[in-house]
Amino acid sequence: MRIGELSRISGVTVPTIKYYLRDGLLPPGELTSRNQAQYDERHVRRLKLIRALVDVAGLSIAGVRDALAAIDSHPDSRHNLLGKVMHRIAAPPALADDAALAEGDIEVTALVKDLGWDVKPDNPAWRSAAEAIATIRALGAGVVLDRLTGYARAMHDVAELDLAMAADITDLDQLIELVVLGSLLGDPLLTALRRLAEEDVSSRRMRAAIPPDPA
Amino acid sequence: MRIGELSRISGVTVPTIKYYLRDGLLPPGELTSRNQAQYDERHVRRLKLIRALVDVAGLSIAGVRDALAAIDSHPDSRHNLLGKVMHRIAAPPALADDAALAEGDIEVTALVKDLGWDVKPDNPAWRSAAEAIATIRALGAGVVLDRLTGYARAMHDVAELDLAMAADITDLDQLIELVVLGSLLGDPLLTALRRLAEEDVSSRRMRAAIPPDPA
DNA sequence: AGATAATGGATAGTGCTGTTATCCGATGTG
DNA sequence: CACATCGGATAACAGCACTATCCATTATCT
């Protein structure tokens, strides 16, 4: 197919497709002459992927580039595959306040030690956690953190599920794509599920506090 | 204090403070004359809050405005307080594909029914969940969703922790602020914890797969 | 008191990002 | 052969979050 049909099928405008081609997000089609190229199903899929990462996962184009680079890399073994992927798709750091960050770091260190997690401080998520904790404390919302280990345990359950999937998959290219999508698209899904679960818990408690309806 | 000192203490430049004032994110100081105003600790705190929502929670200025409006509202009762807040701080919808969205919606409906959650479809998170699920399926990463109820249960644990905090707090203004901050700043924290937990689970499984070191 | 600096307020300009438009000569299609 | 479409390069655009400039006024310093 040519660019017009690719546009029609994918729902992405021709100028935008050209822009993605320029930026290297989308691989060029196969040139059949000086100004004709053939695109195929892989291009359609790649476009869907880009739009999903932008619209649903909320990534910037630069973030999409990193994510796609991770997906396109061909890992040689499962060993530390996840660690390498995490480094590549990590969000850029936010907080600059060194003092606050150091305090957050201490809390993360304590948490990790407390739970006996086998995690290294160079994981970008370590810094993200430290930033989030420092910020929450700085705003006087420390109460939220009283249950930090509880939150960590719940996310550990999530992580178990994340990796349970990996056990069944032998193809490393397929695995790495699932890890990336599971992480990046999984985040907004988990956020939404949290909000829904909050509504359930809230309404459950409300009912418990009110005498049962005799009707 | 005047705007210069407010800037020095908060680390936000004077032009930016003026911009926030114009936009109504920051309430005006008390005018002592035509071109002099007094600011206080509340302004410092509000600035920290804005920066946290932008830098850590990743909100746009419009999103910050909504969040602040939610924080500033004075609820008359605990009843459905959380639901109202959730509506106000919800992220704007992403997906337009009606067919895909409808399928996602069916999956959310099934999930909620399956778990017996007391949740209404007008919760904005319902749509977000449907969007995320539809997107993941559309990209052929449906395996990720095989454990959807597991993810939902884990997030239910998180929600229990979220609301456990609320029980101890009697002041509604304080409560609403904690709910907003716990949600918006809690999201990146949970994401980071998920990544850390994944590293732990991964390294644990690696060790289990390798014969124990005799040393 | 007089020089200097800072202030509130209005208005305009900036840099970045993501996308869209225009133009070209070449190619495909009816 | 007419006319749409193409790939490719370059320019233009809109939105966002700031940042800079200007002004008449007010505060501060000596």
Descriptive overview:
Two copies of one chain form a homodimer. Chain A is mainly α. Helix content of chain A is 67%, strand content 3%. In chain A, strand 1 and strand 2 form a beta hairpin. The structure holds a DNA duplex (30 and 30 nucleotides).
Give a nutshell description of this structure.
2 copies of one chain form a homodimer. Chain A is mainly α.
Secondary-structure map:
The structure is a homodimer of 215-residue chains.
Chain A (H helix, E strand, L loop, with lengths): L2 H8 L3 H10 L6 E4 L2 E3 L2 H15 L5 H12 L8 H9 L8 H18 L8 H15 L9 H20 L4 H13 L1 H24 L6
Antiparallel strand pairs in A: 1-2
The first copy, chain A, binds a DNA duplex (30 and 30 nucleotides) through helix 2 and strand 1.
- What spatial order of strands do you see in the largest sheet of chain A? 1-2
H/I helix tally of chain A: 10
Order of helices and strands of chain A: HHEEHHHHHHHH
Number of strands of chain A: 2
Helix/strand/pairing category of chain A: mainly alpha
Low-confidence stretches of chain A: none
Beta-strand portion of chain A reads under 5%
- Computed CA radius of gyration of chain A, to the nearest angstrom: 22 Å
The description of the largest β-sheet of chain A is:
2 strands, antiparallel
Q: Give the oligomer, counting copies of the same chain as homo and different chains as hetero.
A: homodimer
> What form of chain A results from the Cα inertia axes?
elongated
